[in-house]
Amino acid sequence: MCIRDRVKGNEEFRSGNYKEAIQFYTKSLNFNPNAAATYANRAMANLKLKYYSECVVDCNKAIDLQKDYVKAYHRRGKAYEGMKKYLLACKDFQQALKPVSYTHL
User: Fold this and answer.
1) CA-based Rg of the chain, rounded to a whole angstrom?
2) pTM greater than 0.70 (yes/no)
3) 105 falls in which pLDDT band (50, 70, 90)?
4) Which of 14, 76, 96, 98 lies at a C-alpha separation of 20 to 30 Å from 90?
5) Residues 97-103: contacts with CB within 8 Å, 24+ apart?
6) Torsion-angle region of residue 66: left (phi > 0), alpha (psi -120 to 50) or beta?
């Protein structure tokens, strides 16, 4: 169920239906609250809608689950930029550019 909802969320996102995508990602997270990628996907949908605070919350959760999640740092940086929190945005962009350790694979 959670994979199907995440896939449906991805389809809605690609179609530009960001609110619907958020709903499907949320359903997926209800079944698997430890899916960093799903939080990052929902963050991107929130970012597209300029729901910056929600984007930051989802990115924080994705980063908590996967410390070196480059996309989450980048998306959180974009949200901070949209919120005019430029120093925080710069820190996240710098973090996103750091080399990634693949020791957890």
Assistant:
1) 13
2) yes
3) very low
4) 14
5) 100/68, 100/70, 101/68
6) beta
